[in-house]
Amino acid sequence: MAEKIPFGKSDFKVSQMGMGTYYDPGWIFSAKLLKRQANWENKVAAIKAGVENGVNLIDTAELYESENLVEKAIKPFDREDLFIATKVWPSHFSYDKVIKSCERSLKKLGLDYVDLYQLHFPSRIRDISGTMKAMEHLMDQGKIRNIGISNFDLERTKKAVESLKKYEIASTQMNFSVAHRDIENDLIPYCKENKIAILAYYPLGHGRLVSPDSKTAIVLKEISENHGGKSAPQIALNWFISKYDFVFPIPRASNADHVVENSGSMGWKMSEEEIRKLEQSFN
User: Is the pLDDT of residue 211 over 80?
Assistant: First the structure.
């Protein structure tokens, strides 16, 4: 079984790779307005396959309309072994709405608490201090165990950190991959210094890392041969594992075979030279 490491400042150990349950806008529209969740059986099977292959970090959100799928998928497993994360949308950032949104998410997930509750995007109209008061209230009640943010730049991250009175920011979630490394210039150093975990969404670069150009393909082939035939997605996800101990990629879990393949990114590491070559191939 792949190694598990502490999540941020917490003592809870999570897999070095997680699973995301954002599918696409059309799927969300259909699920929300038409009450149709296309291929839901395959998605539930994919999440189950991930847990069975050592992935215990699962990310969802009230926006995604997938919390009920997570509930179905995790039923056979020991709750205490899982790290379940969800998010609240900015239109629900008032004190009362944050609490109601959390309770609604808990009901859909079939849980008494979530391990991580995240602000999905920074609000352009509401001061964060009031929102964080609600998050701290949820912490006090035991309904959430960690507070996170998502899509916050460095300036907003610092403001979020400063707005908490009793607890600390456990994590942030950002668009991050070996092909999209903007946050390495500012947010990564800040999070490392402050022991803030990072959940990396779009870790395969919207498919760019699955179907690379010729320059990257040559490097991937070399790394693959050095590590027993690892696939392009496995190498792309392992880049996080090899380079950082506080960044957790969360590729989408929609196909069981893909999730099992992705889990093969854990349990090994690239050399510093391989990391350098891979990064240079995207320059």
Answer: no
The per-residue pLDDT of the chain, averaged, comes to 95
Contact 177, 209 (CB under 8 A): yes
Render 97-126 in DSSP notation, one character per residue: HHHHHHHHHHHHHT-S-BSEEEE-S--SSS
In the chain, DSSP assigns E strands to 4-6, 13-15, 19-20, 57-59, 83-88, 116-119, 147-150, 169-175, 197-201, 247-249
Among all chains, which residue has been given the structure tokens 């699973």? Answer: 19
pLDDT at 1 over 80: no
CA-CA distance, 241 to 238, in Å (whole number)?
A: 5
39's CB contacts (< 8 A; 6+ apart) are 254
* Contacts (Cβ under 8 Å, ≥6 apart) of 177: 200, 202, 203, 204, 205, 209, 236, 249
Identify whether the C-beta of residue 201 lies closer than 8 Å to the C-beta of residue 175.
Answer: yes
- Ranges of each domain in the chain: 4-207+231-269
CA distance 109 to 87: 12
| Catalytic residue numbers, as ranges | 64
The architecture of the domain spanning 4-207+231-269 is Alpha-Beta Barrel (3.20)
**Distance of alpha carbon 57 from alpha carbon 81, whole angstroms:** 9
Residue 75 CB neighbour total at 10 angstroms: 11
Closest to 145 in 3D by CA, of 117, 108, 173: 117
- Is residue 280 pLDDT above 80, yes or no? yes
